[in-house]
Amino acid sequence: VAHQLYTSVVTAINQTDQCLRFSCPERSVSTAVYVLLYVCAAAVVLLTVCGNLLIIISVCHFKQLHTPTNMLILSLAVSDCLVGVFVIPVSLIWMIESCWIFSAVYCIYSILTSYFLTTTSIFNVALIAVDRYFALSNPFLYSNTLSVSTMCCIVLSNWFILLAYNVALQYFNGHFVSVVMCPGDCFFVLDEIWSLVDLLFTFVLPCAVIIILYVLVFVIARKHATAIRDLNIHTKALKSTADSMKSERKAAKVLGILVSVFLGCLFPYFIYTVLGNVIEIEMGSFQKVLLLVYLNSSINPVIYALFYPWFRRCVRLTLTLQIFNTDSALMSVL
After folding, report:
1. Peptide bond preceding 183: is omega within 30 degrees of 0, i.e. cis?
2. pTM above the 0.70 mark?
3. Number of separate domains in the chain
4. Residue 256: which CATH number?
5. CB burial string 281-296: b at 16+ within 10 A, e below
6. What is the mean pLDDT of residues 92-119?
7. Is 173 domain-assigned?
8. Which of 38, 39, 61, 202 is most deeply buried (CB count within 10 A of its CB)?
9. How far apart are CA 36 and CA 331, in angstroms?
């Protein structure tokens, strides 16, 4: 299998290298606009990488944030940060230049990376939805059975399973020969069967889980709101229970915003994917909706900054270098 995979990759590279001899079309924009586009691209990459890196540092450093839910947030931030490092820069350059200017080897590498990281982000959000539903529907069972180490095992299993799936997807769908780069393009064309499998596995299944569970989460959250009002008329001994329920409800609301934005960025791409099998779609438009999926990785840190006070505190402590102080990991950030 390894020998066949190697042979297929070499064949694809030899074929696509012939296409690289074509020159890209000349720019149709002025130099000032061209420079401005690259400045904006650099700002997007910087926001994505630095924003998600701050989330990673916050969750890893502060002991108070070592919770099962935050392990999923950490996993999402890692995948988003890697998208900002390996996927978004290449996609933005491709859009600005209106041509694939990199080598055939990097084309194959870029396709593998973007497929894997995008799929991982989708399933991370689905796991967050499952986590919130479990936490709200069975809070006592959740706290007793789901530890940080257990969640870390779940996260690692998710990454390995998706890596195996993406390798299988690329291998069985023509052994990488379906890479298209003539002239100045870099696409991976799935056959009809694998296109349907990929659509069901990477979009329909996780999105169905996300939507169904979050509808149930908000139904439960409404019941909790009623319960909190009832508890407030009792003694202060029940105040901690009410505060806990209120905290869980607020977390579900914020994560609901995160999921809604995610689905908003994801749906256009998969609609284009489905329509692409029926009608001819302009490649420029397809690149834009694909970039919208990647830009979700830039939006997530902004959502955290707007709705999570603990994230703002962690950012302040990180930027002022207070995390290097003795026992800074034990500081309260909640």
Report:
1. yes
2. yes
3. 1
4. 1.20.1070.10
5. eeeeebbebbbbbbbb
6. 83
7. yes
8. 202
9. 42
